[in-house]
Amino acid sequence: MQEKYLGAVLILLFIGVAGYFAAQKKPDLPIISCPDLSKVCSLDVGLSISTDHPPQIMRPFKLLINASEMTPAAASFTMQGMDMGLNRYRLIKQENGSWTADVTLPVCIQGRSSWLLELEVEMHSKQQRYYVAFNSR
Q1: Which of 34, 40, 86, 111 is most buried per CB count within 10 Å?
Q2: Rounded to two decimals, what is the model's pTM?
Q3: pLDDT digits (tens, 9 = 90+) for 9-18
């Protein structure tokens, strides 16, 4: 009986350690630096990112994406080397052709303000990711 529990504990421990190291992994793609997202940040791929006001912790803001020849699918927010919980946002197409999501950044217990936006887009039936580093206030 105890062997069953020991096996279950070892499996859970393995999953926890694997999850920890997955959260520590740096993105394979280059990180684009856009310190102030309240100003338009243009990517070379025909995509621009901005917010309606400077992002702040626990204060909702609107993420605005303008994209040509691609469909933004989702955005998520992390910090390098830190798990920030589940905060994935689906982008909604607006009448003017832009894409938006209402976002609220979680609190970082270390007081850090350096964020990484992971933007998933679809272009020519292929999923692509872009990583954008920015700062909150």
Answers
A1: 34
A2: 0.75
A3: 545 444 544 4
